[in-house]
């Protein structure tokens, strides 16, 4: 019995040489695994081990270069009059042009004109109720007058008009019956006028006067006190009939000069804060301005600077803006 047990125990054990061989193999395997692990740790991006966020798959559409930008949708065209209107409603200076409208008052008599051009004659209308209603002067169309440069109404007297004739020369035309019949023409020498063909030279009572800007508007209060609107939006004045002139004085938002025998007035767009619309300004000879009145307007429409004119006589004020007319009989406190 004892011999059988020994044989069974001997069958379970390995020979010494085999055991040594197995130990050697395991040792080599351990060294190999340690080497591979070290290599993986030393590689910043080992294959099969993501150390950063996985990159998104590339698009099949190539990305534009950094300097390229997607095309912006085309802007709708904006008319010049629309730009002027937007600027006017914002209280900004707009591009100035020569006046295509003139209006003047003397008491209840009103005279207004579409200026026209030398090759396209203007037209004149008269009012006997302070501008409430107007009657065209058909007889004026039969004269040799073309472009109208200045109007001087006289209530109960003779109204004078300075206009170019068919040869584009300044002449004086007159009527004593509110445009029913006309006299003239006579030479315009000896009176104030602005000929657009020579905007740096003014006709004046003492002879032609050269000024330091291109004039777009002229407003004689008297023969000696005169204001000139320059193309850059500034105003120059004289108090001695043009012998000397003031320095140019910029006026914010100015659009036209007004007719008045009392004050040197200008029409300017509102500042958008104290006045949303048009304002009448009293211009001082020292370059200062004082608001006489504000005419509130929600929308000026497509009115250009040249389509604006104003006049004063006593407490009566008339503001002509495009196709609309505004009248005040209390010095600008209220408007109709």
From TrEMBL:
The chain crosses the membrane at residues 12-38. Residues 48-89 are annotated as: Disordered. InterPro entries: WD40/YVTN_repeat-like_dom_sf. Residues 55-65 have a biased composition (Low complexity). SUPFAM superfamilies: Oligoxyloglucan reducing end-specific cellobiohydrolase. Keywords: Membrane, Transmembrane, Transmembrane helix. This is Uncharacterized protein.
């Amino acid at each position: 019995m004892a011999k059988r047990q020994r044989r069974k125990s001997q069958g379970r054990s390995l020979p010494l040489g085999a055991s040594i061989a197995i130990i050697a193999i395991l040792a080599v395997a351990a060294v190999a695994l340690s080497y591979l692990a070290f290599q993986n740790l030393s590689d910043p991006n080992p294959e099969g081990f993501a150390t950063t966020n996985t990159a998104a798959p590339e698009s099949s559409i190539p990305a534009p270069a950094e300097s390229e930008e997607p095309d912006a949708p085309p802007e709708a065209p904006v008319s010049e009059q629309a730009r002027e209107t937007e600027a006017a409603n914002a209280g900004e200076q707009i591009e100035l042009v020569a006046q295509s409208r003139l209006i003047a008052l003397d008491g209840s008599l009103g005279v207004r004109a579409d200026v026209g051009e030398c090759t396209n004659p203007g037209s004149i209308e008269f009012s006997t109720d302070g501008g409430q209603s107007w009657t065209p002067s058909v007889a004026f169309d039969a004269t040799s007058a073309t472009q109208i440069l200045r109007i001087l109404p006289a209530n109960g007297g003779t109204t004078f008009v300075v206009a170019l004739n068919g040869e584009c020369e300044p002449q004086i035309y007159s009527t004593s019956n509110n445009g029913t019949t006309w006299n003239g023409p006579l030479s315009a020498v000896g009176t104030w006028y602005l000929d657009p063909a020579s905007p740096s030279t003014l006709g004046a009572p003492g002879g032609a006067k050269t000024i330091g800007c291109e004039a777009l508007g002229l407003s004689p209060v008297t023969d000696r006190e005169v204001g000139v609107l320059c193309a850059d939006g500034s105003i120059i004045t004289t108090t001695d009939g043009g012998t000397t002139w003031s320095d140019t004085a910029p006026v914010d938002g100015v659009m036209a000069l007004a007719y008045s025998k009392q004050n040197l007035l200008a029409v300017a767009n509102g500042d958008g804060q104290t006045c949303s619309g048009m304002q009448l300004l009293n211009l001082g000879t020292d370059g200062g301005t004082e608001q006489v009145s504000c005419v509130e307007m929600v929308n000026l429409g497509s009115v250009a600077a040249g389509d604006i004119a104003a006049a004063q006589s006593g407490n009566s004020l008339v503001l002509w803006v495009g196709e609309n007319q505004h009248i005040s009989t209390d010095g600008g406190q209220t408007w109709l």
